[in-house]
Amino acid sequence: YQQALDINIEFGDRYEQAGTYHQLGRVAQQLRDYQQARADYQQALDITIEFGDRYSQAGTYHQLGRVAEELRDYQQARAYYQQALDITIEFGDR
């Protein structure tokens, strides 16, 4: 994923960068490197906000919630989950 990210950055493909940061976050999460996972997900979120991609934002907020739970930051986890829920409700996604 890091090589893909480097290529996306080189070519200025911001949208693909978001997806790659999200995947890097998932890998870091699996490795229990929660600080890195949070940083990667936040990068993905910033880019999806830039593009107005609400559907991807919902998934990233959900993952940020899971990371916050692992870090025992339950108030932040709840806030992230609520943001994810609000977006999915916008789309009628149950």
Estimated share of beta-strand residues: under 5%
Query: Termini, distance in Å?
Result: 31 Å
Average of per-residue pLDDT values: 90
Q: Sheet bearing the most strands, described?
A: none
CATH architecture identity: Alpha Horseshoe
Q: What is the CATH third-level topology name?
A: Serine Threonine Protein Phosphatase 5, Tetratricopeptide repeat
Q: What is the count of structural domains?
A: 1
Number of strands: 0
Tally of helical segments? 5
Give unreliable regions as ranges.
none
CATH homologous superfamily annotation: Tetratricopeptide repeat domain
Bulk shape? flat
Topology at a glance:
Blueprint: H1 2-10, H2 14-30, H3 34-51, H4 54-70, H5 74-90
Helix pairs in contact: 1-2, 2-3, 3-4, 4-5
